[in-house]
Amino acid sequence: MATSRSKLSPLEILHNGPVIPVIVLHDVDHALPLAQALLAGGIRVLEITLRSEAGLESIRRISAELPELIVGAGTVLSPDDLRMTAQAGAKFAISPGLTPSLFAASHDGPIPLIPGVTTASELMLAMERGFTELKFFPAEAAGGVQTLKAMYGPFPRITFCPTGGISPKNYKEYLSLANVACVGGSWIVPPDLIVKGDWDKITELAAKASAKL
Q1: DSSP three-state, residue 46
Q2: Which end is more exposed in the chain, N or C (fewer Cβ atoms within 10 Å of the end residue's Cβ)?
Q3: In a domain, 2, yes or no
């Protein structure tokens, strides 16, 4: 949103790379080595979700130790989530939807919010509140590439980050769309590789995903 005091606008954040890894961490000790592995693979923007108790502290550690990364918080559901993630050092927040209370908290807030939408009506409500960069979620379940193509006609000024069901098999098709800046995906950060600490493999996956199309 234009009202944010962040140094980076939502559009600048979304244009920092073709893929934003959607990360769920259950052990905060994995946070820094994972972030370093992703950075080595060319990833500069991370979404650390609040789906686990380790999420907030992971944001805090990565933000403090690796300031060259743009760390965002995902699964932000409430004003309290937004406040806590900003205090932890997050540079932006992503939510699966938008509520009146979350909008009120984000208006003139310390970090930008990128809310999720699924339908044209939700998109129009977000537009009324000044949002032009949105998460399209759940992307594949909501019609995927074809829905986004249809959205472009009436909403050419909206930029999307589709998330949900994005994979190595379909992400390039999403990125080919005029209204898509990047995609959110978890295939770069498989839970089994995180648990094993196979950071080299994660770097390899990140490098493939972040390579120029």
Answers
A1: strand
A2: C
A3: no
